[in-house]
Amino acid sequence: MSAPKAPEGVPFAINPETDPELAEEGRLLFAGEVDFLLSAPELKHLPPADRVEICFAGRSNVGKSSLINALTGRKALARASNTPGRTQALNFFALGERMMMVDLPGYGFADAPKPLVEAWQRTLKGYLAGRSTLRRVFLLIDGRHGPKEVDHEIMDLLDRSAVPFQVVLTKADKNKAAEMRKVEERTKAALARHAAAFPEILTTSSEKFEGLERVRAAAASLFRD
C-alpha cells in the first residue's frame, strides 16, 4: 500500500528557521520557574483552566521525560511526577504564571489490567477533547521509526476534537542522516491524513540537546496567536 501524499499547499517544513526574538522568548519561558502542580488520574482532578496550556504526548519509551527535562534544564522534573500511583495520570507543571505544561503517560503500552487501561483512555480522550485552554499538543514520535498505527489513533482523536498538534521526532541522533531524511518524508506523508497537524515538524535529540530551541519557540509562539 503506497503512502499518502501531502496535499498541495501543506509542505510540512522540517525544522524551519526560528526568529531570534521568538527563540529568546522561548528560552525565557522554560528557563524561569517550573513547578510540579498535581497529578490528575481523573478529569475531576484537573486544575482550573486559567492559562495557556500545552501537553506532551507519545508512545511509551519515545523519550518524553528526557525531552521535558532537557527543555526545562531540570534533570529529574518529569521523573519526579512519575512516582507509583501517578503513572496513569496527567501531570501538570506551571511555567511561571503564563503557561501550564502537561505530561501525558505513554500510550500503546497496555500491561496494566484492562479496566484500568480503559479508564485511562476515557480520561485521556476527555482531556484532549474538552480542555478549553489546550492550545497545542506536542506529539512525540520516535525518529528511528516514524509514525505507528497507535500514533494515528491519537491523531484521529485530535482531528475530531479540532486540537492542533505538532510532531516532534525524538532521538534524531540515533539515525544516520540519510535514514533520518527517509523518516522525515514518511512522517510528512503520514501527516497528510490529519487535518489538525501543524505544518512544521521538529527533530530533537535530548541526549545532545539538539532542536530544543525550536520546541521552546513553538510554545512561546502561542502567546502571539
TrEMBL record:
<comment type="function">
    <text>Necessary for normal cell division and for the maintenance of normal septation.</text>
</comment>
<protein>
    <recommendedName>
        <fullName>Probable GTP-binding protein EngB</fullName>
    </recommendedName>
</protein>
<keyword id="KW-0132">Cell division</keyword>
<dbReference type="GO" id="GO:0005829">
    <property type="term" value="C:cytosol"/>
</dbReference>
<keyword id="KW-0460">Magnesium</keyword>
<dbReference type="Pfam" id="PF01926">
    <property type="entry name" value="MMR_HSR1"/>
</dbReference>
<keyword id="KW-0342">GTP-binding</keyword>
<dbReference type="InterPro" id="IPR006073">
    <property type="entry name" value="GTP-bd"/>
</dbReference>
<dbReference type="InterPro" id="IPR019987">
    <property type="entry name" value="GTP-bd_ribosome_bio_YsxC"/>
</dbReference>
<dbReference type="GO" id="GO:0005525">
    <property type="term" value="F:GTP binding"/>
</dbReference>
<dbReference type="GO" id="GO:0000917">
    <property type="term" value="P:division septum assembly"/>
</dbReference>
<feature type="domain" description="EngB-type G">
    <location>
        <begin position="50"/>
        <end position="225"/>
    </location>
</feature>
<dbReference type="GO" id="GO:0046872">
    <property type="term" value="F:metal ion binding"/>
</dbReference>
<comment type="similarity">
    <text>Belongs to the TRAFAC class TrmE-Era-EngA-EngB-Septin-like GTPase superfamily. EngB GTPase family.</text>
</comment>
<keyword id="KW-0547">Nucleotide-binding</keyword>
<keyword id="KW-0131">Cell cycle</keyword>
<dbReference type="InterPro" id="IPR027417">
    <property type="entry name" value="P-loop_NTPase"/>
</dbReference>
<keyword id="KW-0717">Septation</keyword>
<keyword id="KW-0479">Metal-binding</keyword>
<dbReference type="InterPro" id="IPR030393">
    <property type="entry name" value="G_ENGB_dom"/>
</dbReference>
